[in-house]
Amino acid sequence: MRATLIEVAPRDGFQPIGPFIPTDDKVSFVEAAHAAGLRRIEIGSFVNPAAVPQLRDTAEVLRRTAHLEGLDAQVLVPNARGVALALEAGAQHLAYVVSASEAHNRSNVRRDVATSIRDYGEIVAGLPAGLRLRLNLATSFDCPFDGRMEEDLVLSRLDALLAHREDVEVGLCDTTGRADPDHVFSLAAKCLARFGARTRWVFHGHDTYGLGLANVAAAWRAGITGFDAAFGGLGGCPFAPGATGNVATEDVAWMFRRMGVETGVDLDALLRLATRAAALPGASPGGRVRAALADRCAAA
After folding, report:
1. Is the distance from CB of 6 to CB of 202 less than 8 angstroms?
2. HSE-up of 282 (CA within 13 Å, CB side)?
3. Which of 43, 50, 239, 246 is the most buried (most CB within 10 A)?
4. CATH homologous superfamily of 4-296
């Protein structure tokens, strides 16, 4: 058994931090994550720098980490302009985001869901051959404005999105961290049953209410094998009031090790990286394994 851990701290973890993290440091964090065995890393986003100033150097981080062997560097893009900038920078793996919730979609990307789905279809049709594509469905479980999302609505959003292209990776995102394991298992199982093997699935969880690991385990039980996580438990959505950090990569790696599931991650190296990230000025770290294994977290 093997689970794929997708490191999202350099994007989702860094974006809410106020003090600018120097580009050299961002590159160093990506290099350290790669050295710890993480190969899927979301290194940044091509969004309006006025909205997310922390990630205004994504193109430079992408360029300076391109030498890392086997690195699959994905970047978040919210619209056609972001896609154009990402392609200009040489990105080979895009993560496009649409919200299941109308209110969150308007808050996040300033348009209604139907327009985002139409835009996504036009973007998909124009992508270069061989480009890898990830589709993130934000607020798959809960919206900070509308509350719990009905599964039938989420499935209908996916019907419309996957009509444009089925052979993509879909991230079911617990944007607020208010999902519970029963809900995660139920929606994940329905998605896998409804859309078949051509679509690949990832669970993206936050630990706002302490259910991040339980939700990861529920998604695994339902058949999902890919998981977003952030070293140090960093993160939080600027457009989802109250949402705190992503589930910590070191916590997920430790749990899967205890379950006998391979991840390819060097836990000691990851703990050192997480400890360094947790000390970033302006960061709000999370997770539990760093404290439990404090004697193994000393910086090298």
Report:
1. yes
2. 12
3. 246
4. Aldolase class I (3.20.20.70)
